[in-house]
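Table S2 (text version). Query chain:
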Amino acid sequence: TSQKGEFTIPASGVNAEQYTVAFKITTGTAFSAADGMSYSFAPDASASSTSPNAEVGSGTKLKISFDEYDASGNGVAGIRVIYGSTVNNPGTTPGTNGILAYSANTSWAGVADVPVVATIAAGKLTLTVNGTTIFSNLQLPSSFVTDDKSSWLHVFKARSGGVAGLHAIDDVNLQYYNS
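Corresponding structure-token output:
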């Protein structure tokens, strides 16, 4: 059976021009843990939703998926940036099922306190994991820039299934910038 963990950071009331989300992730032993974890930023993100799977994210806007095990039927582990899709098994191909980018990077799997920093400025996302740039200036849909994000929630979710797993988040830091 699946074991799930999640938490929500309420909406800030701020519609910012730039966002930085930083946190540390800890996962169980590389490739012996299942299934993964996600960060979502959306007005309809939900910590308690059961679909899509926790490692895919929640809501119809921005999701960063840390998938360490092939439980989602997506073929391979890695990091995905997903936007607008609620597909349970999004795959790895950018341009399909809301996937904006995919990286096979799993250097974070099986490691404690890996720093993750996602910065969004001018509608572009840069993601670093353990000091390594995974995605640089990844263009988000134009709606991200025009949407009022003051009511959007930040949701972290994790899931572990038939294979034992550990997922932890620490040192969460959210920063909003306006000129």
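Notes on Table S2: Residues 142-146 form the longest helix (5 residues). The first strand starts at residue 3 and ends at 9.
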